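TOKENISED FOLD:
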Amino acid sequence: KEILEKYRDLFTLQWEGVIGNMHVPSQAEWEQLLTNCSAFLFYGMERFLSHILLNRLVAMNIPECHLMIILDLVRSKQSYQRITNSDIHKSCLHIAIERPTETAMLLSLTGVRSVIANQWYTTLQENAERLEILSENLLSTGRTTGQTVHILQK
């Protein structure tokens, strides 16, 4: 919320979505947000694709999404319990497809042009720092995604 306030005048007035713990988005809400965006930010717990029905995602067409930022792979006791209960009903292949590289490939096949994502588990604090760096460089400074990712790697 702090970052949205800080960058409100730049682009965030046009942003829509679910913030905080307002509610858990339905599959229809996920699809509506993904298909009607030019950029998409996911900042949440566990694997991004664990929140969306995989068979629905692969059938989607998202060519208008120029950039998807996925700040996921954060774990808490509650999120670990949720993901464990969810994974019991999935095949090993399905779980493997939810990994970061596979997620980026699937999103690319649906039409997303650029994906910035975590590669391994992290903390909420580290993701907050990444989001601040991304916002500062993409929104305030106007750097390209490549330049911004290079700064993140340092």
